[in-house]
Structure formats: C-alpha cells, structure tokens
Amino acid sequence: MRKGTRASLLIVAAVATVATACDRGGTPPAGQDQPPPPTVTTTTPETRTRGQDDGAVEVARALRTAAGALPNGRAFDLEQETRNGERVWEVKVASEGREFTLDVSADGTQVVSRDEDNDPDDDVQKVAQTQVDAATAAESAAERERGRVTDVDLDTLGDGTLVWEVDLVRQDGARIEVKIDARTGDVTQNR
C-alpha cells in the first residue's frame, strides 16, 4: 500500500470516528452547534416497588441515613418514636464496635440527634455477621406482606439462625411479623 493511500484511509477513519461520536452524544467538531443533552431518568434503591407503601421507603431511607452517618455504620434496630411532638425513627447503629442511637426525621432523610451507648448491646457483634442489611430486609418484608413497617430488629432463632424481625401493619389493620434470614434474605417465617 502506498503512503498516500494509507494516510487517506487514516483520515477517513478519523472523520468517521468523530461523526459516530457526534451521533452518540459526543462532542461535535469545533464550529458546529451542540445538540441538546439527552433527558435521563434514573431510579434508586428507594424507588417504590409493587406492593410497598411509602412507609417502607421511609423506613429503608431512615436505616440507610443512620448507617451512613457513622464510619462503617450498620443499622440493627429501628422503632418509631415521638420526640417533642415530632415523629422520628429511632435507629440503633453499630460503628467500629460501638453502639449509637440516632433519631432520624420521619421522611428518613436527616439525622436529628445522636447518642453513644456506653454499654453496647450484643447485636453490635451480631450485625457484623449479616449479609443482608436491615433496610433491604424491611423492603423485602413490606413488599411480601404489603404492609407498613413499624419495627425492625436483629435476633437469633433457637437453631442459631440470625434473622431480621420486621413488624408490619397491613392495610386491613392486621399486625404481622416477618422473619428474614440475615445471611440469605430468605423469609424464614411469618406470624
């Protein structure tokens, strides 16, 4: 192949590459108008799934917010409380061998208070053995039972299985507890 032909082929390839990049949203060559940016819709793990009510989303968000507020934080207990007339989620979190209690806003987005417990619960060690976090367990239970989560707790069954106990209220007012294996995510029992 002659030098001139090879150079021409390289130029054609470069022009084709630039044109393809422009068609795919790349930067067009200088002097050309920029196309409008594409509209992008994203979803997050907090996106409502079939059967979940908004309470499950708030609970999962509160658990993740509390865990994220501390180094290596792992939430292991959640209850709904009222503080100074305001509804909050009280979340216990293990962080580097220590236990903290955090109050998280009702919508699950902000930590409003934090206290360290000087006498950590044995759940601080247990939560390190889990493969499924409390937020995922709460979401799973709410989707399965189509209920509003009111409480999440880590417990050990008689056979040694580590489970998340998720208390829910169904739309008909019935209360139910779902136990989810903290290592596999499987539902171990409902009652």
UniProtKB/TrEMBL annotation:
First and last residue of the signal peptide: 1-21
Identification of the protein by name: PepSY domain-containing protein
Biased composition (Low complexity): 23-33
Region (Disordered) location: 23-54
Keywords: Signal
InterPro entries associated with the record: PepSY (IPR025711)
Domain annotation PepSY: ranges: 138-187
